[in-house]
Amino acid sequence: MDRPDTLEIRDVTVRLNGQTILQDFSLGLEAGRKALLTGPSGCGKSTVLRCLLGFVVPQAGSIHIAGQTLTAESVWKLRRRIAYVGQEPDLGAGIVRGILERPFHYHANTALRGNLARVPELFDAFGLARGLLDKEVGDLSGGEKQRVALVSALLLDRDIFLLDEVTSALDPASKRKVIECFRLRTEATILFVAHDAESYPFADLIVEMQGGAA
After folding, report:
1. CATH number of the domain that residue 79 is part of
2. pLDDT, averaged in runs of 10, over the chain (214 residues)
3. Which domain, by its residues, includes 47?
4. What distance in Å separates the CA atoms of residue 11 and residue 9, rounded to the nearest whole number?
5. Model-level pTM?
6. Is residue 136 part of a domain?
């Protein structure tokens, strides 16, 4: 028997500023599966992720996460299951160590504070020098910011990852390390957005988008 979809988008239409970004777009992704959204800039890839996060409300269609309909009432609860990292993550100000510790100051995450012990392991996996922990975020390169944001997301033990062009600022070797890390997370449901489908040969589903339609 097939497992129920962890992420399900049904016939979603999004119009912004008089322009149709998505038209009757549908996508289903079972728990533990990996999907890649690819296509030209402006075709709606990032909008799909913003819909799943509840930041964009479709004019038509519905979205379901772990069997629950995404609504204004359920969005806050459902976001706690999702880790999102964008192409240009906003890490805030301060030293990297403090940025990684910050989410665990919130009551919802205090039980996971022990995960900070995994920071050296994750830095090594992503090719980050451990000395970066004591650097100011403002002194990091774009690629370093992307990888620090990914480490922060992994520390929260979410079961759904939405990753939007998160290797765009990385050199080929670092990019391979990041992609391999997420390939090995067999228990996680992951939706990647990327232009280069060939870098994700392990994807269970590749959705090529054109003007918001698959």
Report:
1. 3.40.50.300
2. 73 93 95 94 93 96 95 94 94 96 92 96 96 96 96 96 95 94 94 91 92 50
3. 5-208
4. 7
5. 0.92
6. yes
